[in-house]
# Entry
Amino acid sequence: MLLIHCPYCDEARPEVEFAYGGEAHIARPVDPSTYSDEQWEEFLYIRSNPRGRHHERWRHTHGCGRFFNAVRDTVSDVFETTYKAGEARK
Amino acid sequence: MSGFRLADGGRIDRRTKRTFTFDGKARWGYAGDSLASALLAQGQMLFGRSFKYHRPRGILGAGVEEPNALVTVDRGPGRVTPNLRAPSVPIYDGLHATSQNRFPTLKTDLIAVNNVFSAFFPAGFYNKTFMWPRAAWEKVYEPIIRRLAGLGDSPTTRDPDHYDATYAHCETLVVGAGPAGIAAALEAAASGGRVFLIDEQEEIGGGALSDPAQWAWLAEASAKLAALDNVTVLARTTAIGHYHQNFVVAAERLTDHLAVDEAEGPREKLWRIRAGEVVLAMGAIERPLVFEGNDVPGVMLASAAKTFALRYGVAVGRKLIVMAVHDSGWRDALALHKAGVNIAAIVDIRRDVAADLIEGARDARIACYQGYAVTSASGGQAVNGVTIALAGVGKGQKLDCDGVLMAGGWTPTVHLWSHAKGTLRWDEAWGAFLPDKTHENLRCVGACGGDWDFGKGLSIGLLPAPKPLHESKAFVDFQNDVKARDIGLAVQEGFRSIEHIKRYTTNGMATDQGKTSNLNGLQIASGVLHRPVTEIGLTTFRPPYTPQSFGAILGHHKEALFQPLRKTVIDDWAADHGAVYENVAQWRRARYFPQGSEDMDAAVARECRAVRSAVGVFDASTLGKIEVVGPDAAEFLNRMYTNPWKSLEPGRCRYGLLLGEHGFIIDDGVSARLAPDRFHLTTTTGGAARVLNMMEDYLQTEWSDLDVWLTSTTEQWAVIAVQGPKARRVIAPLVEGIDLSPEAFPHMAVREGQICGVETRLFRVSFTGELGFEVNVPAQHGRLVWEAIWAEGQKHGAVAYGTETMHVLRAEKGFIIVGQDTDGTVTPDDAGLGWAVGKKKPDFVGKRSLARPDIVAPGRKQLVGLLTDDPQAVLEEGAQIVADPNQPVPMTMIGHVTSSYHSATLGRSIAMALVAGGRDRMGDTLHIPMPNGTISAKVVAPMFYDAEGSRLNG
# Structure
């Protein structure tokens, strides 16, 4: 079971307290109607799926309830860092 | 009969006898014996029949690596455990053990005829042979194969035992309590941190248990460990897996070593240990050698013979021959000789062996054959001799013996290292894979880390033999009956990757996970492919390290504790009134309330008629509820839901439709605006948590500028739906401070006041098509208010109704249930809910997707009503729909039935369905092919009752 550091609680807590939230830093466009079908498809469905460093969202569902971002290595599952939502990509 | 008890030696208690049975016959041993040592001491050589060929098999190892001697232990009804390894089963008074996979008896196994025809059972035999006819596989081939080839039988009755579970945290966890593990634990303990030392055996000591010279040290070290407050020592505890961040799961066996009537408390305990550092001291497992007849009973690992002699005081034979490719074989031979076991000869393929070993053997009058190999072992149910030849190619000579000890080198036990995704490197000196790199705070010590003093040796998968590989009956995987020639055949048939070879031959896929076979299989594949071992790769070890009971994994999570069961505050009342329940998500809900001998159809028909003609009361407390509060609450909901919310007046309700960004319906519910900055949202029963999560997501990450708070209030409110023409008359005497007149309190409105003296949020809403109210009261008052409404309702012919009646009533009105009439690919327009989408809204979640090409394309599945030609025929939910029932199979399916009921109100069946281009098919007849014939139905609008909605305004 992973230990995940919640940047809001500032504590490493067991994985069961968290829910995975998909790839991070995919912002919803301010006005989706300006997006072409291709751009919208990209936003909806296309993800980077890297081998290695992955920026992803987690929610401390059974803790503070906050969404935050993490960098995890998809091969080793090691978390490089976690940081608050809204902070720049690390 | 060749094994016997030595006159002295061993850690057994010779003053305490234990009696037990094996295959029904009375046997005995000493306290401290394993089932294997006790039986060996009495001359038993035959322990089991092999998996595929039913060949006689004896003991190979002295620990958990044992592949052959699998037994079933019977501790009473429901307490039957198959596939236990005889060397790891401690004996106790009254132990009942039986051998497995033999018919009818171990000694006379009729199915051993498979062995005679073994040339016809090569790798991939089943896949190649039993291909046709396909139908025969399930009924004929598989049952027969399963009978012939198998391990023990699964238990057939419920496990009456209970299992404990606990968490532990420590600075250092040491897995394996041999000399290296004990040293690591003592060292870690000195620093003051919490230390756990766990070992799978009956007592700690590991390899030292088989070395009397270390017993004094062991006793001293054990006492030292026991005296340390910061050290926890757990024997009989197997670390079954290493998971992320040094999370190790270990199972402690608490009672299986005790006589049945002495066993108290939980059978096993599952430890979930989070450790700062994990030290693996799991030792190494000796490798068998691959030569013809290497599976005949009496052929075993040299290290096993040493353990039986020095730990248990048992000689495994009277005249033993050692086949070594490794110095450890010589050392074990000398140790055995010293303990009084007769070693007749040492055969070693190497010419160059350390002088002190040769000298030792000469002093012990052991014949030495250097440069020789055993080319075959002979014997049926017991080995009676070997043929040896110079380098395996010269003319063979026969040597008599009643036991052959194999010393094929050592394989470090890196299982948990591999679980932790640690990498391995091939080490030529070891002839094995050793731990290399890991990202965990994890290290291997002792033999499992490549630190050892067993001497030198060769790495060899297959002994040189005069016979070609494809004629040899040399076994690699004893438990799955895989021979060297099967691996050769797999390569010949084109398999190259070790992962494919493993699966095709099943090498290493038995319950022992290849503890004794993986390396040999790999080296043989390497030889046949003419490629170095490092290029062939190694298959990955996965948890559990040894087979593990499901009971311990489950722990307390069974029966009522398997998962939470959510009950409303009215649940007890429903039980008292004979409710039949159904589970909806984690909620238990009353499905119907049968009276007398009513079945579900009769009860539902009565409940439906009562609601339509008088009034019904329904516990709707499970509805998801979210309080949305803040200056931007209306703006937030406007962006989340398809409907416009900003224009909604306080005191009014609105049906909200929630989409994902993909444009498909994911939830719905009626919500009320209580104040300009306060909404009472409802969601589907199963969707509450999902919707709250989604809303939090948008609020926190996309629109963090909005000033809104979301609070889950699902369990704060009990909800009592009062539905039917007499609904107002039922609640009127109980309500205070709310004008219930139709003018003052119209449909889709909300009022706050009191009912039965309790605060209420009273909704005038209807999921039945009738005049209706939903009474929200604080949950602690729910039962009281329910009973008051129920008592008042009795004056008006009220019924209590359940979810089944609720479903029928809503279907008569064509109201959808998200997740039943939608499946995650249904848009508002598909569901006929285009009216709920705010056309003028610039944006909401999912809006952009509603303009995607596939969403606007014609021919999408649309929700329609179906009326069967036979009004009494009730369609099956999920049934597929076709346009032309006479087309050839496979037919083109154009949709499926989503909801279907008998409607007592209409005196006929009704159904809803998703049908391609459904709204263009109004009036058409479609067909639903069923096993008993095709049912025809006419497409109609999904609205079967009171289309104008006049009943709402009663």
Chain A has one domain: 3-27+46-84. The CA atoms of residues 27 and 37 of chain A lie 17 Å apart.
